[in-house]
Amino acid sequence: QVHLAESGGGLVHPGDSLRLSCAASGRASSGLAMGWYRQAPGKGREFVAATSGNGNGIFYGESVKDRFTISRDYAKDTVHLQMDSLGPEDTAVYYCVAGPVPGTYNYWGQGRQVTVSS
């Protein structure tokens, strides 16, 4: 079993930056693909960004690829999401995910609220 502990998020103004972090723990946490999804009010879940388990791949959703940066500390099984130039459209609950390969996620965190409002 893998446990994902998220941190960060909160309320910011348009144009601000915010950082989310997620630490994986458990017997099977090493070498997993890790990333983020989000879900805005009244909408379905949207892929945000992900890293492969071997460090060879980084992937972004179209709506964030020029503003968000995902990074990974493989030694600590931790993934970070740096979010810049935030806008109201980024308001959502952000979920950390992990799984054997990018696109297949067996584990989900509890979610962190990000609200962008003036």
Uncertain residue ranges: none
Largest sheet: 7 strands, mixed
- Radius of gyration of CA atoms, rounded to a whole number: 13 Å
Order of helices and strands: EEEEEEEEEEE
Overall helicity? under 10%
The total strand number stands at 11
Give the percentage of residues in beta strands: over 45%
Round the mean pLDDT to the nearest integer and report it.
94
First-last Cα distance: 40 Å
Shape, per Cα inertia axes: globular
- Helix/strand-derived category reads mainly beta
Number of helices: 0
Key features of this structure:
118 residues; seven-stranded mixed sheet; four-stranded antiparallel sheet
Structural write-up:
It contains no helices and 11 strands. The chain has 118 residues and is mostly beta strands. The strands form 2 sheets. Strands 2, 4, 5, 6, 9, 10 and 11 form a 7-stranded mixed β-sheet that branches. A hairpin with a 4-residue loop joins strand 7 (68-73) and strand 8 (78-83). It starts with a strand and ends with a strand. The relative contact order is 0.32.
Task: List the topology elements.
Blueprint: E1 3-8, E2 10-12, E3 18-25, E4 33-39, E5 45-51, E6 58-60, E7 68-73, E8 78-83, E9 92-99, E10 107-108, E11 112-116
Can you give me a brief rundown of this structure?
With 118 residues, the protein is mainly beta.
